[in-house]
Specification:
This protein is α/β, with parallel strands linked by helices. The chain is built from 17 helices and 16 strands. The protein has a nine-stranded mixed beta sheet with strand order 1-9-10-12-11-13-14-15-16, with helices on both faces. Strands 2, 3, 4, 5 and 8 form a five-stranded mixed beta sheet that branches. Strand 4 and strand 5 form a beta hairpin. The radius of gyration is 27 Å and the shape is elongated.
């Protein structure tokens, strides 16, 4: 369930969307459906309801693959060559005046006077109210606020309000003021130390803040047009330079280089989970925007994106029909060496994660790509198998139906049992498959259930008295699904807990998406 465990996602367990000239000779199992000429006709894309909030929609960015990018070497030497760029925002004077008057009770007399004088000056010059957005130094947005050029003239103070969460989870609001820029830089040093910045990171933070301030004072900067910088893209902030965990990702660089032009990288934030995610969308060979494709959705993108080149090669060699490969993991500024965050979301927060995939991510993908959800697959392994088991047997509770097929790989249900007992939750919930068959007569999804035949000893130290081992839990799930007549494939690989995954993914792709 730890480092090597994978949470893969979707493959699609029955029909191919795109016709191929070669007829399928063998069916994958009793659960597979032989493809016919009639079944290869053009399929209309699925329409799902996008339930993202306005904030979530504003954070979405879609761009070329950046996983292979090497961060530049930034210098904290103020005498080195640096480039400062500033984007200004113009405010409508009347709107600003109205806002000032509406918030008059929250302002001191001096603050109100200063604001009104700024408005009067803007009216007299006819330039309007302009203020600089956080400057960009050497391609990175400076995270600290930067005082305006004349703020310290004639004994002025640089003032702002901060909000932080204390150890009790309560918001603490503080009004701060600084009599000089040097005093403000000392404050930044203190805050960086509290956040665990290294000396090198703090020096760079201070240097960039100083360069931005000096540029504002001297006017020696490049002015950017309004809207030139996507400030929702966290990778552009200096903080992301300090926390770049691309090296945690496991993949063959040469293989990814070969497919990088076919990969869209999407950044998306979920308010419910309070997580930022990186989504890789790998398009099939000869991809056509007008055509409709199923999605093969893989969680644990930190490992599974590395399998995408081999999966795409199967399509290129006509060993499988074209599908869109989607992998999901956290943003590049997140590291999870002990997999505690992964366990938290796949097991503890599985309901919220399912909300995100079902009502946010898949609807967004359907808006940007033509997808046949009925033939799309969700894959998960170990803790991810716990998640896909939950997703399958709670799918009937959603209006959106983004998947027709589910892969449940080596589900570590004993880990869920531990959590349930800790929280005082009955284990009957998952042993009864979340009551799905109490609400429904049949299961209208297909299931591929798999595990490694040698894997039980892998986590023997984690089992407690009364626990089902991984294989025992899988066998019981298989029995329950068979008893309900589910369209099911059950397979054990001659493997330990995770080693079978690459082989299984390729085999599944070839046998499910027939070419």
């Amino acid at each position: 369930m730890k480092k090597t465990v994978t949470l893969l996602l979707l493959l699609a367990m029955t029909l191919s969307l795109t016709s191929c000239n070669k007829a399928a000779e063998d069916s994958y199992s009793s659960a597979s459906v032989e493809q016919t000429t009639e079944q290869t006709q053009e399929i209309s894309p699925t329409k799902l309801t996008n339930k993202m909030t306005e904030t979530e929609l504003d954070t979405v960015t879609k761009h070329a693959l950046t996983l292979l990018d090497e961060p530049p070497k930034l210098s904290s030497d103020p005498n080195a060559e640096h480039k400062v760029s500033i984007e200004f925002q113009t405010i409508d004077i009347e709107n600003w005046r109205s806002s000032i008057n509406e918030n008059r009770d929250e302002m001191t007399d001096d603050e109100y006077k200063e604001a009104m004088e700024a408005i009067q000056k803007a009216e007299e010059t006819g330039e309007g109210l302009r203020y600089p957005l956080p400057p960009i130094v050497d391609g990175y947005i400076v995270a600290n606020s930067v005082p305006e050029a004349d703020v310290f003239e004639n004994g002025g103070l640089y003032k702002f309000t901060t909000s932080t969460i204390d150890e009790n989870g309560e918001w603490q609001v503080k009004d701060l003021s600084f009599a000089s820029f040097e005093e403000y830089l000392d404050y930044i040093r203190e805050q960086d130390a509290k956040q665990g910045f290294t000396e090198e990171e703090t020096d760079l933070d201070i240097c960039f803040t100083q360069l931005a301030y000096d540029a504002l004072c001297s006017g020696n900067y490049e002015e950017l047009p309004s809207g030139a910088v996507d400030r929702n893209d966290t990778s552009q902030y200096l903080w992301s330079y300090f926390h770049n965990y691309r090296s945690d990702w496991e993949y063959n660089r040469e293989e990814v280089e070969e497919i990088k032009d076919s990969v869209d990288e999407i950044y998306v934030y979920d308010e419910e989970l309070q997580r930022s995610f990186t989504v890789h969308v790998t398009l099939p060979p000869d991809y056509e925007k007008a055509k409709t494709y199923p999605v093969f959705f893989l969680t644990d993108g930190i490992w599974r994106f590395g399998n995408c080149p081999a999966l795409r090669k199967c399509m290129e060699n006509k060993e499988a029909a074209p599908v869109i490969l989607v992998s999901l993991y956290y943003s590049y500024d997140v590291t999870d060496p002990d997999q505690g965050l992964r366990y938290e979301d796949l097991v503890i927060n599985r309901s919220e994660l399912l909300d995100f995939i079902t009502d946010n991510l898949m609807p967004y993908l359907c808006e940007n790509y033509n997808i046949d959800c009925t033939d799309s697959t969700l894959y998960g392994h170990s803790d991810g198998g716990v998640f896909t088991h939950y997703a399958l047997f709670n799918s009937d509770n959603y209006e959106n139906q983004p998947f027709g097929h589910y892969i449940i790989g080596s589900p570590a249900l004993w880990g869920l049992r531990h959590y349930n007992e800790y929280e005082g939750i009955s284990n009957d919930i998952y042993m009864n498959d979340y009551g799905y068959f109490d609400r429904n007569i049949t299961l209208n999804k297909t299931v591929f259930l798999c595990a490694g035949s040698q894997e039980d000893p892998d986590y023997a130290d984690n089992y407690r008295e009364g626990d089902d081992t991984t294989l025992e839990g899988v066998a019981k799930l298989n029995e329950r699904l068979e008893a309900h007549g589910a369209e099911l494939t059950y397979k054990l690989y001659d493997s330990h807990h995770y080693q079978y995954i690459p082989e299984m993914l390729i085999e599944y792709l070839k046998e499910t998406y027939l070419c």
